[in-house]
Amino acid sequence: MKTFPISLILLTTLLTSQFTMAYPTPPVVKAKGAVLIEQESKRILYGKEAQSPLPMASTTKVMTCIIALEKGKLDDIVTISSKAASAPEVKLHLRTGEKQRLGDLLYSLMLESHNDTAVAIAEHIGGSVEGFCEMMTQKAYELGATSTSFQTPNGLDGPKHYTTPYDLAIIGAYALNNPEFVKIITTENIVIPTVKVEGSRSHSLQNKNRFLYSYPDANGMKTGFTNKAGHCFIGSAKRGDMQLIGVALASGWGNKGKTQKYQDVINLMNYGFKNYEKVKVLEPIKDYDQVNVKKGVVKKVSLECTEEVTLPLLQEEKKQLTIKKVVPTELVAPIEKGQIVGEVEIRCNDVLLAKRDLKTQEAVRKATVVDYIKGFFIKNR
Question: What is the DSSP letter of 74?
């Protein structure tokens, strides 16, 4: 990852702002909806109907797995209900009353996409399928996936079951931060139960995600298909410090769509790795600026930026960056230390790419009558 001083970025911007950017040729994507993002920044590197709601089939199970990991315990014993056992194919053929560890069922969920497993997990964690789906939707909202609604834990179609390519990508980006999730989705094969459980049966599982075996540096994630959604796929790959997440929804139907979903995401990945590079454009800075203070014991307060900004950028975008501070002309005391009073904006061709808060470095007390009297005598010595 390269780092460029702010002064150099600003100078380069002044020298090159008159030039028109040359964008690389976009990837060939047959999916109805698709997106490519970089994990850390969540920046969209390519989008096709990226904000349009679409059914997502079993890519749903990314969220199912995350909720189970965060709300349950891997050693929990899950007892299979008749409702779970009667779920439609694709299924593990769990039997009513069968017992399995939650952690083992997550391999069934993510490696072979079993629908009965998803229902069993939902009932165990949420008390009911409906309760669990509410948890899924709430979690999506907390992550910023505000155009997503879950009605089933396995991805089977429903009128209130949909996401957008971008929402699904940021859910996947979040999931990759969980080491247990990554361990599960990158496992090639496993036999469960991994620990003997009374009332369990043995099941052999094989990872069905062909992307893992066919794309260099792939590290996930999940396939999906329903008659309504078509073939769907969310995939992830990492090279160096660049972690990309690609989503393809409705890549087609039949055998052609089954292959196309992988090709769509491969084309997205190739486009991203070929054309983008992560660049640190802003580092934490003390004394970034000063703002006048009214009615305070001091006349000015210093501001600082405590966060860095690292972005995936095209070669031409590096020349077009501008960094702008947005601060008030005056603040009124009292002022707390760490109070957010402004922000730093990073833009490219006037498009906002990122922003970070500007905070006060110290507190400023409101001046009293005594302070004014002291100030008068000091000034007139």
Answer: T
Tell me the pTM: 0.89
CATH architecture for the domain at 46-226: 3-Layer(aba) Sandwich (3.40)
Rounded-to-integer distance, Cα 291 and Cα 360, Å: 9
Phi, psi of 212 (to 5 degrees): -60, -35
Fold classified for 280-379: Peptidoglycan synthesis regulatory factor (PBP3), Domain 2 (2.60.410)
Beta carbons of 220 and 185 less than 8 angstroms apart? yes
For the chain, what are the domain ranges? 46-226, 280-379
β-sheet bridge partners, residue 259: none
**Could you tell me if 100 and 193 are in contact, meaning their C-beta atoms sit under 8 angstroms apart?**
yes
Spatial separation of the C-alpha atoms in residues 236 and 38, rounded to whole Å: 10
Can you tell me the distance from the alpha carbon of 274 to that of 14, in angstroms, rounded to the nearest whole number? 27
Element containing residue 274 per DSSP (H, E): helix 254-275
DSSP 59: G
Side chain identity at 374, as an amino acid letter? K
**pLDDT per residue over 36-46, tens digit each?**
999 999 999 99
377 CB-contact burial (10 Å; exposed 0-12 / middle 13-18 / buried 19+): exposed
Q: Is the distance from CB of 250 to CB of 57 less than 8 angstroms?
A: no
C-alpha to C-alpha distance for 41 and 308, rounded to whole angstroms? 11
Report how far residue 8's alpha carbon sits from residue 112's, in angstroms, rounded to the nearest whole number: 51
Taking only the tens place, the pLDDT of each residue in 42-83 is 999 999 999 999 999 999 999 999 999 999 999 999 999 999
pLDDT digits (tens, 9 = 90+) for 1-26: 555 554 444 434 433 444 455 789 99
Nearest of 214, 302, 220 to residue 266 by alpha carbon = 214
Chain centre to alpha carbon of residue 19: 33
Residues with Cβ within 8 Å of residue 179, at least 6 apart in sequence? none
Catalytic residue set:
58, 61, 113
Largest CA distance in the chain: 92
Rounded to whole angstroms, the Cα distance separating 149 from 231 reads: 19
Among 312, 244, 309, smallest CA distance to 280 is for 309
Burial pattern 96-111, b for ≥16 Cβ within 10 A else e, equals eebbbbbbbbbbbbbb
Judge contact between 62 and 234, C-beta under 8 A: yes
Output phi, psi for 267, to 5 deg.
-65, -40
Looking at residue 34, its amino acid is: A
